[in-house]
Design goal:
The chain is of the alpha+beta class. It has four domains: 2-139, 2-Layer Sandwich (Beta-Lactamase); 144-268, PAS domain (Beta-Lactamase, 2-Layer Sandwich); 297-390; 459-613, Heat Shock Protein 90 (2-Layer Sandwich), CATH 3.30.565.10. It has 13 helices and 16 strands. The chain has helices spanning 2-65, 70-85, 144-169, 173-184, 217-223, 270-317, 331-352, 358-423, 429-456, 468-478, 480-485, 506-523, 581-591, and strands at 91-98, 103-108, 119-127, 130-139, 190-196, 202-206, 232-240, 244-255, 258-268, 464-467, 489-493, 501-504, 531-539, 544-551, 595-601, 605-613. Strand 13 (531-539) and strand 14 form a beta hairpin. Helix 7 (331-352) runs antiparallel to helix 8 (358-423) and helix 12 (506-523) packs antiparallel against helix 13.
């Protein structure tokens, strides 16, 4: 349950963050693009109006200088504005002022208002760098889509006008009505339409009566004012909730100077508004869909991250720092638990390390941690073994010292009396032989007591930098006759042919080497295959030197491996050894800050390893 809550927390946070990021990004892109397009459209509109105002200033420059030219100014301004407004309804008004800042011309489009809040562009009229007046144009900035729709309807009106021009010149009103009906009524945005003839009589009408309330006399007058000078008139006549903005386009049907008729088309922006609403809905659904996809990807991504983390957490928690049976557990039990943990992690870690991301780095770090823990446990195990052996050595040393002294005193007295008896001349030969046997056994007991005292007394070491290879070769030479006598083959496998120098006491270490060699010879006495492998290994990582002695003898039983270094422990026949050789060797190697290890497989032989620091 806790694992699921951890995973859900991470998944939720990543999903919310990722989804919110995608949602905000989509909104910013959508809103930003609209804002950018509107800004560019506004910039283009302002530039167009400025250009129109500047062009008008050039045309009326001379007229403002001349007196009594107000009528001409009005005519020029009307002509320019009519021409500009024929395809663009954005210009809503115009004011022309003279150098005294008096209005000489004013125009306001029907239905429009101009004032302080209206968009405007002002241009000075100059004559030889002197300001003689100004022109101010007022304008709207219609929606870019509405403006394009207006252009579409203007194109429709021009198309109808061109199609009908031929038939009106022939007075073929049937074809005029037929074509008007086919072309105009096929556009769903057309609200109403009409075609009038040369005498302004109606030839074709489409839903005109339904919009009578919007078609005021002023609207009709402007619509019928088209001429060769102003062949197209556009005007926004109303706005309603049902139809949106209602705009009318009037187009002249002319043949040169002849006025053949007028096409009037009223259209609505309602469909455009609905299209924009649909587009916004689609965009919203796309944003919502992308957000859902982002959430899904975030869940997959979070699961991909949290799943291995949860596995690592489970493995880490599987290690009980304070188990219930802690009193009965040993270092071997802890080592086995760690081995089990490592095996479980290896199955998971081998898959995680292939990811190549932070989780893989974590898995690698986790594996390194387990390896280091194993190494530390081995070191602790060795340390406690050393302490245990040292404690046993100390206890046995104290006991041996006491026993040796207790034996030496009566033994010295017995030896003295034996020697006195042997010096007496009245002792017969048979008795003398028996007493001689007693003397030999006393000497053998004294030798054993000497070993006990050697084990009990603290040895003095004379350390020097010496060649391990030379010491091992010399030790083998001292026992060469034993190899020949027992038909034993010796294989030497040194780390290198060059000297291997370490700090040691050569005499003490030779004692250890000879003891291991002689033990190996005794172990192979009854073995059909007799091979002794001797060599060295240099461990650069730990900066240690290992000298090994591997025989092909009978081996050591598993239950005896932990006791072979104990004082007086021996597997040899009675009277063959004291059980102190390996104990003394262990103490000598320990004094060198080294380790003496034993490995064996019963029936296949044993290997003893002396591990010493290289420095």
């Amino acid at each position: 349950m806790e694992r699921r809550s951890v995973r859900f927390g991470i998944v939720a946070r990543i999903s919310i963050a990722f989804g919110a990021l995608v949602f905000c990004t989509a909104l910013i892109v959508s809103a930003g693009s609209d804002i950018r397009v509107a800004r560019l459209y506004r910039s283009q509109r302002v530039s167009r109006v400025k250009f129109l105002a500047r062009s008008m200033s050039y045309g009326i420059e001379n007229l403002l200088v001349s007196s009594g030219s107000r009528g001409q100014i009005e005519q020029v301004a009307d002509d320019v504005l009519r021409k500009a407004a024929s395809g663009d309804t954005s210009v809503t008004g115009c004011e022309i002022r003279d150098r005294a800042n008096e209005v000489v011309y004013r125009f306001v489009r029907t239905g429009a208002t101009i004032g302080a809040g209206t968009n405007s562009v002002a241009v000075d009229v100059k004559s030889k760098n002197l300001i003689i007046g100004s022109i101010t144009l007022y304008y709207d900035i219609p929606d870019i889509f509405e403006n394009e729709k207006m252009r579409q309807v203007v194109t429709l009106g021009n198309t109808v006008a061109e199609m009908l021009r031929y038939y009106l010149s022939k007075y073929d009103f049937f074809q005029v009505k037929y074509l008007s009906q086919r072309i105009i009524e096929s556009d769903p945005d057309v609200l109403y339409a009409s075609v009038t003839g040369p005498d302004e009589s109606s030839i074709y009408e489409y839903r005109m009566r339904s919009f009578d309330k919007y078609l005021t006399p002023e609207v009709i007058r402007r619509a019928m004012s088209v001429s060769a000078v102003q062949p197209v008139v556009t005007q926004k006549i109303a706005a309603s909730n049902e139809f949106g903005n209602i705009v009318e386009v009037s187009v002249l049907i002319g043949d040169g100077e002849n006025r053949l008729g007028i096409v009037r088309i009223g259209y609505s922006t309602a469909s455009l508004v609905k299209s924009l609403a649909r587009e916004r809905l689609v965009l919203s659904l796309m944003i919502f869909g992308f957000t859902l996809i982002a959430f899904g990807l975030a869940v997959l991504l979070a699961g991909n991250i949290t799943r291995p983390l949860a596995e690592l957490t489970r493995l880490a928690r599987s290690v009980e720092l304070e188990p219930k049976d802690a009193d009965g557990r040993t270092a071997a039990d802890a080592e086995q638990d760690l081995i089990n943990l490592r095996d479980s992690f290896d199955r998971l870690g081998s898959r995680l390390t292939k990811r190549g991301d932070e989780v893989a780095d974590l898995a690698t770090a986790f594996r390194t941690m387990i390896d280091n823990l194993e190494k530390r446990i081995r070191e602790l195990k060795t340390f406690y073994q050393k302490i245990s052996v040292a404690d046993r050595f100390y206890a046995m040393g104290q006991l041996s010292s006491g026993i040796a002294h207790e034996i030496n005193n009566p033994l010295a007295i017995i030896s003295t009396y034996v020697q006195i008896i042997l010096k007496r001349p009245d002792v017969d030969a048979e008795t003398r032989a028996e007493i001689e046997t007693i003397r030999e056994e006393i000497e053998r007991i004294a030798e054993k007591v000497k070993d006990l005292l050697s084990f009990a007394q603290e040895s003095k070491f004379d350390f020097a930098v010496s060649d391990v290879h030379a010491l091992m070769r010399k030790s083998l030479d001292l026992t060469r006759h034993q190899f020949k006598k027992n038909n034993i083959a010796v294989e030497e496998e040194y780390a290198s042919a060059s000297p291997l120098m370490i700090r040691m006491d050569p005499q003490k270490l030779r004692q250890v080497l000879l003891n291991l060699i002689l033990n190996a010879i005794q172990a192979m006495t009854d073995s059909p295959r007799r091979v002794l492998r001797v060599g060295t290994i240099v461990n650069e990582e730990n900066n240690t030197v290992e000298a090994f002695f591997s025989d092909s003898g009978c081996g050591i039983a598993k239950e005896n491996l932990e006791s072979i270094f104990d004082p007086f422990f021996t597997t040899k026949k009675t009277g063959v050894g004291t059980g102190l050789g390996l104990s003394i060797s262990y103490g000598i190697v320990t004094a060198h800050n080294g380790e003496l290890r034993a490995e064996s497989t019963p029936g296949e032989g044993a290997t003893f390893r002396i591990i010493l620091p290289r420095e």
